[in-house]
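Query structure, 121 tokens:
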């Protein structure tokens, strides 16, 4: 089994994160399925204080992965972006969106986010 990819924790310390068991509980999945989602580039994780965690904004309030996030991560991964670069891009403000790409994905503006990700390729 391949290792679980993770990015360096370049997030603001105020960004809420979930340990994998908590993320699994919110998604209604076993932890092994969350680990597979990380391997399949449907989610990104960071190591915070030695623990593998997922930014809470990657999950919806109704227990799903934010629509468009897996596709965006895949586009950027296939374009040669590292997990660190993808994480920074998702959380970096873009005045033309406006806001960050992850905020745009959470508010159903995924088409524009994916278009920008493809343009970076």
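Result returned for the query:
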């Amino acid at each position: 089994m391949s290792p679980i990819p993770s990015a360096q924790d370049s997030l603001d310390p105020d960004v809420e994160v979930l340990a994998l068991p908590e993320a699994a509980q919110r998604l209604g999945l076993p932890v092994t399925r969350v680990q597979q989602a990380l391997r399949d580039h449907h989610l990104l994780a960071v190591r915070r204080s030695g623990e593998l965690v997922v930014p809470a904004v990657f999950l919806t309030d109704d227990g799903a992965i934010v629509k468009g996030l897996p596709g965006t991560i895949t586009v950027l991964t296939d374009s040669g972006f590292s997990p660190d670069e993808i994480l920074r891009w998702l959380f970096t403000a873009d005045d033309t969106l406006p806001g960050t790409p992850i905020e745009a994905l959470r508010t159903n503006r995924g088409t524009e986010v994916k278009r920008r990700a493809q343009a970076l390729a």
